[in-house]
Prior knowledge:
Largest sheet: 7 strands, mixed
Strand content: 25-35%
Helix content: 25-40%
Shape: globular
Oligomer: single chain
Amino acid sequence: MDTMKAVLLKRPEEPGKTNYFDDGEIDIPDLIEENDLLIEVKGISVNPVDIKTSKKSLEEQSYRVLGWDGSGVVKQIGSAVKAFSVGDEVFYAGDYTRSGSYSQYQLVDQRLAAKKPEQLSMAESAAVPLTTLTAWESLFDRLQITEKDRGKKILIINGAGGVGSAAIQLAKHAGLEVITTASRVETLEWVNKMGADRVINHRQSLSEELRKIGVKELPYILCLYNPNVYWEEMAKIIQPQGRICSIVDADRPVDLSLLKSKSVTFSWEFMFTRAMYRTEDMNRQGEILAEVATLYDQGILSKTMTKHMHPINAENIEDAHKIVGSGKMIGKLVLTGW
């Protein structure tokens, strides 16, 4: 059987220790399911979920291939694949339960992929899928923002990261007035570049910061940080019958009773839900990515890649995890080439 290069997680990440990734060779996977694409990986992006997963045990596995953002070229297609052909250039966020993109070849269900934007390179395309899907689902599936909500306000907490960078742009395109948070000069500059209308400091009281710009309450909040930190403030500033969505785990139970008197809806967003549970609308992720590709090709969305590393190997992956895990990353970090 032919082999491929891969960056292998050999043991869980431990604070203060390094070299938990190794360069290795493993078998190129055979097509397993009828909807599978075998993709030659050209670009990958490192996300916070990679860091979180690297800290978990490997259970009975001797290694794991991480990575859930990718761009590449289709090399083989399953028997049910109609939308793609060998040679197509694609981008995707993959499936958390399957082997990831830190490898030269990867199996991805066709329903989770789309043809990459023509106006973006492989590297720039790899920066897009996971964070943009997360932002899209948060805004339009969880917060249920529609055309009738144009002109309404949304607060995006922690807007300078990968998801925030996409969410600001998508919310603006949907016609919302976007208020986001930043606390450093460089993050303030970045969120303004992404199109934020107003910026407040998340190191201060959110309600007080909003009051300074003449806002008491708003109908939508997208929290891209530990919701425990802002829970009481969010309960204070959300409008009656408003909606709050968070993508980050709470480190302790949240007090939902604070939302009761206002009949507020709280939702979690986890981008991998559709793939993990094979939901009936699993193909929606591919459809979203196709719509996103069009928005990039029309110049409506701006690139979010801010750091590009080469090649894809254990040393660079380890450095990338340190950078993304620092909590100070602006935009997206991408690696290309073997």
